[in-house]
Amino acid sequence: MNSKNSFLGDLSDRSYDDAIAFHGHSCPGLAIGYQAALYAKELLNLEYSEDEDVVVITETDSCTVDSIQTVLGCTAGKGNLFVNNWGKNAFTFYNRKTGKAVRLMMSPDVIQNPEADAVRQKVMSGTATPEDMKRHKELSAQRVQNILTTAPSQIFEVKEPQIPVPEKAKIFSNIICSVCQESVGVARCIEKDGQTVCQFCASKM
């Protein structure tokens, strides 16, 4: 595959710079997601997914997800990216063509650095000095470099998937909510008090 797109360029070999361009900045989370996507490509013989051949379930909503979108073409809009925000750096990849799947769980000691954690806490709390901010950027850049130069097999533990591959995306017709009179997908409606209503209106009834 050597697909081209005037905006995205060569889809078959997306780089970390492409991930930065999509995400907006470089950071350890983006690097972790990039390595996860590359490892999944290797393990499952994946290519950039222009449709739903590749499916990903992430267990975090962190920066990691943007690298996976960049490298593998998995998006919520195509129905092949599912975000379960369970606070884990774990990612399950599925190859619909082969039926193979793998769950990658990041080793907890990959980005442990007491100094970096302490400085980051100051930055997040708003108490960081200019010197702290400078050191935070230096340590973050070091983390990124360490992650990108470490073999993915040393970053992630390969596990069996916990969840079966999700069904392919379906297109449903729309109906009008009986309460707010707004158009809503029929699959997301709720029958309540003898009325077909959207979930928002159902929560208010």
From TrEMBL:
InterPro entries: FmdE (IPR026328), FmdEsu_dom (IPR003814), tRNA_methyltr_O (IPR053194). Residues 22-157 form the Formylmethanofuran dehydrogenase subunit E domain. SUPFAM superfamilies: FwdE-like. This is Formylmethanofuran dehydrogenase subunit E domain-containing protein.
